[in-house]
Amino acid sequence: MPPSNNAAVLPHAKSHPLQIHPALYPSAGPDQVIIKVSALAINPADHMVQSMGDDLFPSTYPYILGNDVAGTVVEVGSSVTAFKPGDRALALTIGSTPGEGGFQEYVCVKTNVVARIPDEVSFAQAAVLPLGFATAASGLYVPGYLELELPTVAAAEPMGKTVLIWAGASSVGSNAIQLARASGYDVFTTCSPRNFEYCTTLGAERVFDYRSPTVVEDLVAAFKGRTCAGGFAIFPGSEECVIDVMAEIEGEKVVVCAMAVAAEKKAREDVRVKEMFGGSLRTSELAGYLYHEFLPEALRTGKFRCVPEPLVVGHGLGSIQGAVDRLKEGGISAQKVVVTL
Fold first, then answer.
1. Looking at domain 5-129+306-340, which CATH architecture does it have?
2. Residues 35, 107: contact at Cβ < 8 Å?
3. How is domain 147-275 classified at the architecture level of CATH?
4. pLDDT (tens digit, 9 = 90+) per residue, 82-131?
5. Rounded (5°) CA angle 50-51-56
6. Residue 92's closest CA among 175, 182, 2, 14?
7. pTM for this entry
8. Which of 55, 142, 230, 231 has the highest Cβ tally under 10 A?
């Protein structure tokens, strides 16, 4: 008989607070694993879906939110050979069925977005990675976006090109800086001055104050004599500044936008603009390499860090609504809200 399962459920559109209810124990398909969740992280999409409901996108209710989990593999599907029960793992939980939402005790996940984590990485630390890592990797590597060279754990050959990452202290930005450096690219990024050192420790060569009235001019001047590999605009509205920079420098004049709406309409004759979905990596052949080969070894060797740092705000499913509200309030910088189970 399977274990009992419980979930923090959105019973209907725009409902608040989340309701704690028994949930069906998920069934693993051939290429899936079931993970007993020990920690989960909160993302802006969680409070956006809760507050906007079908105004954001049509959903089927009851709905289980949650994209970032870490825990222990307890079951594997019939075709799975890369994982076994007892493996410590992190996973990207984006699905259209209740069994695939992260805000529950047991979750079912496709193995291409599951990565083993070393013993020295806590579940709370690991939970900050999945969606930020996937979004960053989608923008940097998936065909149709920036299409950079893939990252390696060994020292990468210098590409001689520079990537502009707007919002380097964000979850996506923190992952994007590390990935771009592991691919051999130099990185320019933006953030608030209090996070300059943080972004530098992740590998950014130059860091700029995004609120400076001369930030575009400063970036254009910094790119003089360099070849650009493209720009990554992570927050809504930032794409305009990145486009302005791309229009004035040498190299790939393409901007990938992670959270922008109708950003492609802002493209210019000499600057291409691409909108992307953070879960694009799930359907890419690159996912297996990034989650199964690069990330586990990079974590083990210290090549890749679990950042932003986890801000653990509670324990148990009953703490999730407060965590979602805490993120929605704002004021969190270079941290990611986490709940342990």
1. Alpha-Beta Complex (3.90)
2. yes
3. 3-Layer(aba) Sandwich (3.40)
4. 999 999 999 999 866 888 999 999 999 999 999 999 999 999 999 999 99
5. 85
6. 175
7. 0.96
8. 231
In this structure, what token pair is assigned to residue 257?
A: 């936008």
CA distances 62 to 29, 83, 152, 323, Å, are 22, 30, 41, 20
| Parallel, antiparallel or unpaired: strands 114-116 and 88-92 | antiparallel
Q: For residue 71, give the H/E element and its range.
A: strand 68-76
d(CA 41, CA 124): 8
What's at 297, amino acid-wise? E
Task: Give the separation between CA 278 and CA 268, rounded to whole angstroms.
Answer: 24
Residue 327: strand, helix, or coil: helix
CA distance 316 to 321: 11
Residues in Cβ contact with 297 at an 8 Å cutoff, skipping those fewer than 6 apart:
153, 303
Are 227 and 162 in contact by the 8 Å Cβ rule? The answer is yes
What CA–CA distance (Å, rounded) separates 87 from 46?
Answer: 27
Read off the amino acid at residue 149: E
Which residues, in sequence order, are CB contacts of 152 under 8 Å at separation 6+? 182, 183, 294
Burial status of residue 154 (CB atoms within 10 A of its CB: 0-12, 13-18, 19 or more): exposed
Q: Which residues in the chain are classed under CATH 3.40.50.720?
A: 147-275
pLDDT in tens, 219-250: 999 999 999 999 999 988 899 999 999 999 99
Look at phi and psi of residue 95 and say left if phi exceeds 0, alpha if psi is from -120 to 50, else beta.
beta
Helix (H) or strand (E) holding 320: helix 320-329
Element (H, E) at 190: strand 186-191
Indicate where the chain has its CATH 3.90.180.10 domain(s): 5-129+306-340
Q: Which of 1-25 are b and which e, b meaning 16 or more Cβ less than 10 Å from the residue's Cβ?
A: eeeebbbbbbeebeeeebebeebeb
